[in-house]
Design brief:
Number of helices: 1
Oligomer: single chain
Distance between the termini: 36 Å
Largest sheet: none
Shape: rod-shaped
Radius of gyration: 11 Å
Number of strands: 0
Order of helices and strands: H
Helix content: over 70%
Amino acid sequence: MSDLQATLEFSLELCKFYNVDLFQRG
């Protein structure tokens, strides 16, 4: 896995987690 891909995956997971967090707080 390339460095860029790893960063992209990490960002995506972070974004998903952040969105879920905001959604749960309402």
